[in-house]
Amino acid sequence: MDYYIHLAIGQIKSVCIRKRKLLQSAQIALKHCESLDGMSLPQFHEYLQHISYEIRRKRGDRRVHIGTIAQISKRVLGITPHLEQIMGIDCIVDGHIIEMQTGEGKTLTAALSAIYKGWQYGNCHIVTSNDYLAQRDALKMEELFSFCNLSVGYVISTIEPQTRKQYYDCDIVYTTSKELLADYLRDRVDGIFDKYSTQNLLETYNNTTKSQVMRGLQSAIIDEADSVLADEATVPLIIASGEENQDLEKALVVIAGLSRYLIENVDYSVDTIHKEISITDKGYEKFVLHKSKIPDVWSSEIRSKYLLQQTLNAKHFYFKNIQYSIDSDGKIVIIDEKTGRLMHGRSWGGALHQAIEVKENLNITQMTQTHKKMSFQFFFKLYKDLSGMSGTLQGLKTEMWSIYELLLVKIPTHKPKQMRLYKELLCDTKEAKWDKVVQSAICEANKGRAVLVGTRSIEESEFLFEKIAKQYKNTVLLNALYQDIEADIIAQAGRKGQITISTNMAGRGVDIFVDLDVLNVGGLHVIGTERHESRRVDLQLYGRTARQGQIGSVQSIVSLDDNLLANNMPKILIFIMKIIYKWKIGNKISRSIYVFLQFYIDRKISSSRKGRLINDIQLFKMLSFSGD
Predict the structure, then answer these.
(1) Share of the chain above pLDDT 70, in %
(2) Partner residues linked to 375 by β-bridges
(3) Which of 273, 323, 334, 531 is buried most deeply by CB count within 10 Å?
(4) DSSP letter, residue 291
(5) Is the dihedral of CA 544, 547, 553, 554 positive or negative?
(6) Distance separating alpha carbons of residues 558 and 225, to the nearest angstrom
């Protein structure tokens, strides 16, 4: 009952945010911005001191404050924020989450909002989707913040602890959710890492001591909020240390060999929908006959069966260049399936990481012992002030309010959208799909257009690149293996006749500048080659084109063998779809099933996230009571 009352309160508050009133406030702010044009530089600096004092003391007119901040952008960057950006700033300052379309200037909106938050709270974290963007935006906006007497720093994976503390002491900090949570947990680990002291354990997270790198959790503005607060929210970040276990290593090697004797659908079953392995009694009996070489500590039924399941998980659900890559040192590097980026320093737990290493005949790394862990959604609820933005928050309105008490506000586009949506092509097999993709990409490129083709994995991107490059020379490849030169590849993706094959790396936080001669013949053409479980991932890719009122087009080319269907539909239904899809009504039914599956999976995952948060809160209360 309390849950529904809480939702009702959110609905009432949402209705109270009137677009017309928001627009009027933005117009007043812009008028004030223009009224400051004639003020001399010394006068303006003196005026800024007065405005920052008012913001800190929560006095004065917020419209005047925002208009003044807009004037700062005008003077320092030579950019006057447009009306829609002012509306976005107003909402973020008010502690909301905004849906702002890609290409509408979220980077500037976040920076100007951070000036307000920096003056108000003394410290503001801007959370971006990756290290590249955190560093790029911090350096890009350094002059802007300096003009406001605010220091700025960035915390990325390569920054050393001492420098981290220096950057966290800045007024504005650009970083990623993973770095924030990792540093927060490290500050609270009890004597595991020599660079952190245990004297902080009795202090609250807002206290700053010499041993802690973080300054506190005051205010955060989250860019790509759908990814941080939804898609990755329930994944716990774990602080762990290595623990040598030679018996485990030997057991995994032996079990990997024994697993080859087991027959799928006879000795064990594979549930591709829920990604579960079930070992039959017959299968375990066969396994027991050969398990004498397993070390005693792992030979019990429960332990040996668990390692066997992890070995089979590694075989059936984890594949090279899809879920992971192997670096030049022979180490497994996890690939973020939603962003297509390498996740250095991350590992799977429960002996799964080691099982994959055995599968790939690599040196086995040490098992890890967990010391602290926390989910991202629980962590971000610790902030005193939280707000965010994204271009793809569709379907998350209820979740954002029920979990984070964030109201979702849609910001209109500055210019009308000129995106042409081509009819989705449905093929019966992957082979037919790739042929259509090659044909479509080359056809559009020959017209003088730039083409971006999105794939789901490194393996698929390399396969498609080779297939197109044989017929069309002006083709480049972008995936996690080339992320060091990502900026250079993206810089060329909008050129005449250019075909860029990319994983989801091109879906978030990148701007493709389209040449004028390309715009004259239709702009950037985006081809999606597979629907993802979340519709928002597809929309992120489509959002690379038709930005800021430019012309562009999108086409989806999919097959009935794609993962979305294969992992979530009975084989008999897929067989029927392959028969009826050629008919007009059958084609519509098949495409409708795609849409339904995405909706169903999104709802199911959203429900899981809410349940996980409830469990996290209950566990936290129990551990706090026990003194852990």
Answers:
(1) 89
(2) 236
(3) 531
(4) G
(5) positive
(6) 28
